[in-house]
Design brief:
Chain lengths: 619, 465
């Protein structure tokens, strides 16, 4: 028997195995991508690097918000193997019980989700996700832990940064950062457990401009989860990019000075550069040191105190407090009256105190005198002429038409509408229109005599201090304004486009000079209501206001701009329960103006008087 | 002078080159995988690459010694050599276990694995015994003796335990098959015990070994694929059941087989090739279909058992850890690989793939060189195996032929299992990739195996003189 042919059986076996193996290798290596993904899962780890947030400069290049580095000890439960809790607790300086509790707290902190369909409750916690185990460790603290982390798989350090405020001013403008909530993390992929998000102020408004671009670092990890090195020499890594610096129109020294002047007073100062709408200072008093709300540890300690403080330091008064504007409102009434043609600059009205109360002064012969003396009956007449223009036989209809027309004018001044200012928490104030009074009195059940207190900025009219300062801007610019804004430039890209949009009021510039002349007289001339605001070398145009307050002492108000020609600063000062506008608000405004324009104060006694004053009701 | 001329002239340089090439590939891969930046020197003997080069040197020296010895000595001393290695297999059982197996003789890294050398002794004795048989007079006795020659070392190796080498010993069954020593005498006895049956020869008995392997292989492949569906990313609606895949796979294989048969068969036998191909397809197809059918009929818990045994149950971080990591390493190589010394999964530094310089050395090689590299490697091994078969067939002496086939089949097994365990085609059994894996014993034993073959081949013309 010849068995030679059997060699082919063996050859066939060898060849077939060769063919099968080649095909399978081709499939695995070239066609099927799943093993490549698996290899990445096994050997590569993706680490995200969050850049420090953008720094902030004031208008003079002072760095007012910077960053300092700190470290988080992160934990991925799925990667943890054989954790020696006792040893680990000793390493991080905790008790074993605290370590165990921390794991529970992280899990519980994520909350639970109950499916509306199945009714099943599952934890939102994910074992494969990185959570901060210890937060905000200093370089010194982490240096004791980091070298030993190779022994604890599933733990790694993460560099992060915290805000630092070299000038502790402007807390209500800047806002603060705190840890992103679970909802925020779910809504935006940028955030991970432990990442921070802007919580108030411009930090919140410009969140996406502040946070920068995350970097990704791919590392090769060993079977023990140790980092072996960069993946492919960092070929796929992207660097974290810090966002461009944010430049504010704020003058931090002026802001600081304003905060100093407002000590022991409740109220606001808003200063704006009229030609650009850039906010130079925005003081909310009382306020707080922004460094109190930096990082979780301090927030946990200080936030409850601030939030329960009855003087409401967290409340941004200039943006969100709505007050009756009082006499400063008369500026707008005079302008609208002239524009509507119901008065001229030379119209006089007698100071008939029977209609509305007034203080002793001669009757105003023209608009300028009326502004200077702040004559209440004068503006009663003016406003009545605006509202009741006798276009309709019926007084009720006439008032409806006239008030709506008046309200439109007021809206064009930025009153009764929310300004587009780049901050959250703005209120719109109130300019009542026909619809508003219809709700109160019923349709055609009211006329000017019913609502006359709006003539002098009382009653239903309210403005925020920001809107008051904007009125000062409009006066300074003779009829137009840029929306007041904080950010002068994002990097070198300039402000948001809406801040380059000039808003014209419905009043023609030709009607402004007589009113401005009155404002000049308020400060500069005998018989003016704000003689305390006089400042040598600067012609200040201003208007006092004293808002009646049913709950207590009157509010002291003053708006101004200076110098009279080519104004550089427009300002509103509002002091709660301080009495007459000329007594407190006016000198404070003049000090701010002088500080800004001259850099020094010529009358230390005036300054001293303000600094020592204890006004408003403090709790 | 003349003698050395004749040696160089009679040496099979093709085989020697393939052998050298694989060793170079191996050293290069070990240098990549075990590279230590503090010891960049390839010849640093404190490192695995340095040691492997030392083993290559030792192996070449042993090869040189083999060439000095007259080839006749193996046939003459077949029995003592066999008993010597069996003796070593006994001695090793009294050694302290390393990694759970009593496989090492000697101290530390300088030890040897007698099982590696047992293959040589067994090959020689089997060659000696089979060459003494008259193929026309098959008997139960000769089948039993031939099998005993294998079973003694196999039993001892199983005691270590070393399942890998144990399985490798079944490669000798193919050698016996080639030499006509089959299980037919035993099958005949059983068959003819039935009254009225009088077979002279059974097809099953004669071809028992290849049939057994085909059946086992096909069944396993069918089971592996019968619970899966083949899906394509580009055609999401197209779902092909696994059994269709198996049948298609068989069709392609048999088509290739048929084309090869057409090439080698004489012209008048081409029709026979077609018949064989059709028969093979029908039989294997039926077998696969039956296996698939019965598997699908099984209860779930029975299915689960089978899946567990076959490693079908996904447990990538537990039972399946090694294979999963190995496949990820091989699969992530892509077409052209990640580049030399760029393996991220299977490098020793990351250590995701265990034993990546020894049993799993195919991983870093495949990861770094991609399909381009693995294709070349498979071609090299197939070329090596076919070259040895060619050499075997040109021997005038039956002893030489049996020995050559033994070498071919041992290397074939090592190649098929070692690479197969990286691609899901073989169980994870720790056996080295010949000439490639790091390790002194395997390098030396494979080299001796190879050099004895080269020596026998170079003297083939003297045999009948």
């Amino acid at each position: 028997m010849n068995f030679d042919a059997r060699r082919y059986v063996l050859v066939t076996f060898i060849v077939i195995i060769g063919v099968i193996y080649t095909l399978k290798l081709f499939y695995m290596q070239v066609i099927d991508d799943s093993w490549k993904l698996r290899a990445q899962q096994i050997a590569e780890k993706r680490r995200e690097i969050t850049p420090p947030r953008a720094v902030v400069f004031d208008r003079n290049g002072n760095k007012i918000v910077s960053n300092k580095t700190y470290y988080n000890l992160m934990m991925v439960e799925a990667d943890i193997e054989d954790l020696d809790t006792a040893k680990f607790a000793k390493l991080i300086g905790w008790t074993v019980e605290e370590v165990r509790q921390r794991f529970i707290d992280i899990r519980e902190g994520e909350g639970y989700y109950t499916s509306p369909i199945t009714g099943k409750t599952t934890s939102n916690y994910q074992r494969v996700r990185a959570y901060p185990f210890m937060k905000e460790l200093t370089a010194d603290e982490i240096s004791h832990i980091a070298p030993h982390l190779d022994d604890y798989t599933g733990f790694f350090e993460e560099v992060s940064s915290m805000r630092n405020y070299p000038y502790n001013n402007g807390a209500n403008i800047l806002g603060y950062l705190s840890e992103a909530t679970r909802e925020e993390i779910a809504a935006d992929k940028f955030y991970r457990p432990g990442s921070v998000i802007g919580r108030a102020g411009i930090e919140r408004f410009y969140e996406s401009e502040f946070r920068g671009k995350k970097g990704v670092h791919y590392i090769v990890t060993s079977a023990l989860n140790n980092t072996v090195g960069s993946f492919e020499d960092g070929k796929y890594d992207t660097a974290a990019v810090q966002a461009d610096p944010i430049h504010l129109g704020l003058d931090v020294l002026l802001q600081g000075y304003g905060e100093e002047l407002m000590k022991n007073k409740k109220g606001s100062i808003v200063a704006i550069e009229p030609s650009s709408g850039e906010i130079l200072a925005l003081v909310s008093s009382p306020n707080y040191d922004p460094n109190l709300l930096v990082g979780n540890r301090l927030i946990k300690e200080n936030y409850p105190k601030l939030v329960t403080d009855e003087n409401k330091p967290l409340f941004p008064r200039p943006l969100a407090s709505e007050y009756p504007p009082g006499s400063i409102f008369k500026l707008a009434q005079a302008l609208i009256g002239m524009q509507e043609g119901v008065i001229t600059k030379d119209t006089g009205f007698p100071c008939t105190k029977s209609l509305v109360g007034c203080h002793g002064h001669p009757s105003a012969q023209n608009v300028s005198q009326a502004v200077k003396m702040s004559c209440n009956p004068y503006f009663y007449y003016v406003t009545r002429r605006i509202v009741q223009q006798d276009h309709f036989k019926n007084d009720w209809e006439d008032a409806e038409w006239g008030l709506n027309r008046w309200a439109k004018y007021m809206n064009s001044f930025g009153f009764g509408v929310k300004l587009d200012t780049d901050i959250t928490g703005l209120r719109s104030g109130r300019i009542p229109d026909a619809e508003y009074y219809d709700q109160w009195y019923g349709h055609h059940r009211w006329q000017f005599s019913t609502i006359y207190s709006i003539a002098i900025g009382q009653g239903e009219v309210t403005l925020t201090p920001l809107q008051m300062a904007n009125l000062a801007c409009i006066m300074a610019n003779r009829g137009w304004f840029y929306t007041p804004h904080f950010v002068k430039s994002i990097g070198d890209k300039g402000p948001l486009p809406q801040f380059l949009n000039k808003h014209k009021t419905m009043v023609d510039p030709i009607h402004f000079p007589p009113v401005i002349e009155g404002m000049r007289a308020v400060v500069e001339e005998p018989g003016g209501t704000a003689r305390l605001a006089r400042t040598p070398g600067i012609t200040i145009c201003g208007k006092t206001g004293t808002a009646q307050n049913p709950h207590g002492k009157d509010h002291s108000i003053f708006i101004a701009f200076a110098p009279m020609d080519n104004p550089k600063i427009a300002i509103a000062v509002f002091i709660e329960n301080a009495g007459f506008g000329g007594t407190w608000a006016a000198p404070i405004a003049s000090l701010m103006i002088e500080k800004y324009l001259k850099g020094k104060i010529s009358d230390p006694a005036k300054e001293e008087r303000i600094l020592n004053a204890q006004l408003s009701n403090f709790q | 002078m003349r003698k050395s001329d004749s040696l160089a002239g009679s040496l099979d340089w093709v085989l020697l080159s393939l052998y050298a090439l694989l060793m170079i590939f191996g050293v290069a891969t070990i240098y990549s995988v075990a590279y230590d930046p503090e010891h960049p020197n390839l010849f640093d003997f404190s490192q695995k690459y340095g040691k492997q080069i030392m083993w290559v040197g030792v192996s070449l020296f042993l090869g040189f010694l083999v060439f000095l010895i007259d080839s006749d000595i193996y046939r003459k001393f077949a029995l003592p050599i066999y008993f010597a290695v069996v003796g070593l297999l006994v001695v090793v059982l009294f050694m302290p276990p390393v990694n759970g197996a009593r496989a090492w003789l000697g101290i530390g890294s300088m030890g040897i694995q007698p099982a590696e050398f047992a293959k040589i002794g067994t090959a020689i004795l089997l060659a000696r015994y089979l060459s003494s048989l008259n193929p026309k007079q098959q008997s139960v006795r000769s089948v039993i003796i031939a099998n005993l020659i294998l079973l003694v070392p196999m039993a001892l190796i199983l005691l270590q335990p070393d399942a890998g080498t144990f399985i490798v010993f079944t490669s000798f069954l193919f050698v016996m098959y080639r030499e006509g020593v089959t299980y037919d005498p035993i099958v005949l006895r059983i068959a003819n015990a039935v009254p009225g049956v009088k077979f002279k020869e059974t097809w099953l008995g004669s071809h028992f070994i290849p049939i057994l392997f085909v059946v086992v292989f096909l069944s396993v492949v069918t089971l592996l694929l019968s619970n899966t569906t083949i899906e394509f990313e580009r055609f999401p609606d197209l779902k092909i059941p696994g059994i269709v895949g198996v049948l298609f796979f068989l069709f392609v294989l048999i088509l290739i087989g048929y084309l090869i048969m057409r090439l080698i068969f004489p012209r008048r036998e081409r029709r026979r090739a077609l018949v064989i191909a059709i028969m093979a397809f029908l039989l294997s197809g039926t077998l696969s279909f039956l296996v698939d059918f019965s598997f699908q009929k099984l209860a779930d818990h029975q299915k689960e058992r089978i899946e567990l045994v076959l490693g079908l149950k996904e447990d990538p971080d537990g039972e399946d850890y090694n294979r999963n990591r190995a496949m990820a390493a091989v699969g992530s190589g892509g077409l052209l690989g990640k580049g030399y010394r760029k393996a991220s999964v299977s490098s020793v530094r990351t250590n995701h793939v265990p034993e990546s310089e020894t049993d799993f050395i195919f991983c870093p090689y495949a990861e770094e060189w991609g399909f381009a590299g693995t294709f070349v490697l498979v071609i090299l091994y197939i070329a090596l195996l076919l070259r040895i078969v060619t050499i075997a067939e040109r021997q005038r002496s039956k002893f030489n032929r049996v020995y050559a086939y033994s070498v071919a089949m041992i290397l074939f097994y090592h190649f098929a299992i070692n690479i197969g365990m990286n691609i899901e085609f073989a169980p994870v059994i720790g056996i080295p990739l010949p000439f490639f894996s790091y390790g002194g014993s395997s390098m030396m034993s494979f080299s001796i195996l190879m050099f004895i073959l080269l020596k026998l081949d170079s003297q083939r013309k003297d045999v009948l003189n």
